[in-house]
């Protein structure tokens, strides 16, 4: 197997947080790697950090899901805001942009 794929899998297993994809229907358990968004929105003289939550997920875990999918993370429900996009050139993980619902 590709050593890069093994390293990504090990990262998800060792550092990933537990989540549930589609908790109301299939309730598929997934591992997520959180990423803190750096986006700040300037509103007049205020600078506010975006409310979105970014998470990396394995492509196989998101197979058949896309924009609008629901994740439950530590009891908090989040909706995927846009189509998952590949966040690395080898396409070993996807980046999900989510918002609390």
Walk me through the topology:
Layout: H1 3-15, E1 17-21, E2 28-35, E3 40-43, E4 46-49, E5 53-57, E6 70-73, E7 76-80, E8 85-86, E9 94-100
GO biological process, one term: virion assembly
Pfam family, one: Phage_attach
Number of DSSP-assigned strands: 9
Percentage of residues in DSSP E strands? 35-45%
Q: Could you describe the largest sheet, including whether it forms a barrel?
A: 6 strands, antiparallel, barrel
Number of helical stretches of at least 4 residues: 1
- Output the structural class: mainly beta
Describe this structure in words.
The chain has 101 residues and is mainly beta. It has one domain. The protein has one helix and nine strands, in the order αβββββββββ. The chain has one helix at residues 3-15; strands at 17-21, 28-35, 40-43, 46-49, 53-57, 70-73, 76-80, 85-86, 94-100. The strands form two sheets. It has a six-stranded antiparallel β-barrel. A two-stranded antiparallel sheet has the order 3-4. The radius of gyration is 14 Å and the shape is globular. It starts with a helix and ends with a strand. The mean pLDDT is 90.
Identify the notable features of this structure and list them briefly.
101 residues; mainly beta; 6-stranded antiparallel beta barrel; 1 helix; 9 strands; Phage_tail_attach_FII
In short:
The protein has one helix at residues 3-15; strands at 17-21, 28-35, 40-43, 46-49, 53-57, 70-73, 76-80, 85-86, 94-100. It has 101 residues and is mainly β.
């Amino acid at each position: 197997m590709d050593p890069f794929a093994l390293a990504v899998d090990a990262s998800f297993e060792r550092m990933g947080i537990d989540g549930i994809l589609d908790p109301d229907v299939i309730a598929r358990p997934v591992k997520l790697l959180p990423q803190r968004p750096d986006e700040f929105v300037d509103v007049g003289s205020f600078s506010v950090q975006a409310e979105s939550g970014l998470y990396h997920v394995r492509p196989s875990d998101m197979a058949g899901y896309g924009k609008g999918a629901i994740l439950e993370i530590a009891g908090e429900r989040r909706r995927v805001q846009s189509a998952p996009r590949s966040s690395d050139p080898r396409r070993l993980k996807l980046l999900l942009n989510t918002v609390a619902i």
